[in-house]
Design a protein that fits this description.
single chain, 254 residues, alpha/beta, Rossmann fold, 2 domains, binds adenosine-5'-diphosphate, binds magnesium ion
Length: 254
């Protein structure tokens, strides 16, 4: 059984079919790439998977369960966490606070116990604090812990968003253009980092990315979208040599 199964999903916006009858399945533990020209429907497909957009038709199964019309917070609670193409951090909160907020979804004692300073809540608070620091350190931002998120470089903001997603303890991590805005040194270390966190956190990763060397070097399988339709699916090697893919990217007749 696949971990995540997308079946005949479509999403229309007025006359535009942003995602057109896409079916694919993602296996546990793989790094699955999603590529395609601008406007191909990649982010819309992420929005469909994470419940931010409802499908016009089709359905979605996760661990065998139909999650097609669950609200985003329920889907997140099942273990699907994401980052955004246009970064969504709390700009006026510190890096550390941005991670703490995510952790609180998993704490048990609740807000009032925390406010009243009850012992169980205090112990849990210490745990949250320690884990938040560990995650900051994991993404190399421990030196920036008290900096407001909006003052961090793009690369640092992207890493912070990944750390925040990891704080949700996901099983599936969806990354929407994680290398965008990074300099070439940061891009070079990103693929090693993604591979490592997959191992450490036992993740399945779905990755939208334009930076071709990163996608080709990192992904187990790649799906290619063009005008909402999936035009190719397979190993990086297979996809790179597919005439339909070459045509979509270069606009040449083959
Ligand atoms: N909320 C929306 N309302 C109307 N059109 C949208 C909306 N979201 C996306 N689109 C359109 O759907 C198409 C696919 O967009 P998107 O999924 O963002 O593409 P990609 O991420 O591959 O660049 C684009 O033509 C975009 O303008
Ligand atoms: Mg996009």
């Amino acid at each position: 059984m696949s971990l995540l199964e997308v079946s005949h999903m479509s999403r229309r916006f007025g006359g535009l079919v942003a995602v057109n009858d896409v079916s694919l399945s993602v296996q546990e533990g793989e790094i699955f790439g999603l590529i395609g020209p601008n406007g191909a429907g990649k982010t819309t497909l992420f929005n469909l998977i994470t419940g931010l957009t409802s499908p016009s038709s089709g359905n979605l199964h996760y661990q065998g369960q139909d999650i097609t019309r669950l609200p985003p917070f329920r889907i997140a609670a099942l273990g699907l966490a994401r980052t955004f193409q246009n970064i969504r951090l709390f700009g006026n909160l510190s890096a550390l606070e941005n991670i703490r907020i995510a952790h609180h979804i998993h704490t048990k004692t609740g807000v009032w116990a925390g406010v009243l300073g009850l012992p169980a809540a205090r112990a849990e608070q210490v745990g949250v604090e320690r884990q938040a620091w560990a995650l900051l350190e994991r993404v190399g931002l421990q030196g920036r812990a008290f900096e407001r998120a909006k003052n961090l470089s793009y690369g640092d903001q992207r890493r912070l968003e990944i750390a925040r997603a990891l704080a949700l303890r996901p099983k599936v991590l969806l990354l929407d253009e994680p290398a965008a805005g990074m300099n070439s040194a940061e891009k070079a270390t990103l693929s090693g980092f993604i591979r490592q966190v997959r191992g450490e956190f036992g993740l399945t990763i779905i990755l939208i990315e334009h930076h071709v060397p990163l996608v080709m070097g990192l992904c187990d399988r790649i799906a290619v979208l063009n005008f909402g339709q999936m035009i190719a699916l397979g190993s990086p090697q297979k996809v790179a040599n597919d005439p339909a893919v070459i045509e979509a990217y270069l606009g040449v007749e083959t």
